[in-house]
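If you are new to this repository, start here. Below is one unmodified record pulled from the training split, so you can see the exact layout before writing a loader.
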Amino acid sequence: MDLDALIKIVEKVGKVEIDNIEITADELVINIPSAPPMVIPQTPALKETLVEAGLNKELKIEIPEVDWETPINEYKGHIREIQFGKPKSEGGRGKVVKIGGQRALYRFEEPQPNAPVVTFDIFDMPMPGLPKNVRQYFEDVMQDPTEWAKKCVKEYGADMITIHHISTNPKIKDTSARDAAKLMEDLLQAVDVPFVIGGSGDPKKDPIVLEACAEVAEGERCLLASANLDLDYKKVADAAMKYDHNVLSWTIMDPNMAKDLNRRLISHGLDADKIVMDPTTCALGYGIEFSINAMTRLRIAGLKGDELVNMPMSSGTTNAIGAREAWMVNPKWGDRTYRLPLWEISTGLTMLLSGVDIFMMLHPVSISVLKELGKTLITKPGEVKINTDNYEWIRA
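And here is the target side for that same chain:
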């Protein structure tokens, strides 16, 4: 059926429902007519107002000197420290990453003991839906997740990798948990960095997939992503306890819900030192203020001594590239080559200032920049040094 025929049907019946359709494109733009713009009466310019009032003389404003001290807060609590990976001396693959351990919210109060960590997102199948200026870095390896992981580590210096088992979703390929575990085994042999293990988002399949992957990665202290109230979180917690892993406790932007899920996981037997919270990240300009509110409240509550929320936090910073301003063609918004990573960086920086410890990201430039910014949090003010020695590949 051609487009003209489809339009005629819509004109007659008012709507059309289409089942089992798949669209693959670099971008899809849907234009929806909007109402006429509202005209807002403009107030007179300040200068004109002053002239009319006879006050158009030179204004001199004196700013008085005031005594000011940096607002240092002291907290009675602390954020738990969590380790990913296991050293070779303990039978692991070698690389170890630690997050958390803070006793203050801001660097001017007290530098962090561990720098925030950025983990590269990769997928168990090609992802044609990724924006073009992200795909261009990985198109040569998207058919092979192990090569994708190797490229992230060797070329872009990944400290951690997040593998999303998207193909296991029954509505996509329904890949078996056994196949997912085999891939996990191959990835562990391909690179020596710690892993975040993700599913597909299917509430029935994910706990099964995470359990199978946790078994083949036994002792590697991965992060199982995730336990949430919409699936069998007890099964995820059981896998973490049995095979020595950490658990991502994911909730929507509600600190009370985050606290409730943590309480349930701990009551089930999971060690609180094995929990990382994810209160959900909104993209810059798309409700990010809700994420700021939830994350800052959780971090301050933890520092004040609430042991149900004094866990490190994770951010799905890749949500930033879903914002249309990051990828849509619009000359007024600037070159997309820079716009997309800037959107992801700005979202990540906002979360960094809200207390986030681990960031899941996609664009290599965004990741490199945020890693450098994160390093400043472990130094005292005045000792910041940004290393740009390895930025030639970014300029290219």
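Two things worth knowing about this chain: Residues 46 and 60 are 16 Å apart (CA to CA). The chain has a mean pLDDT of 88.
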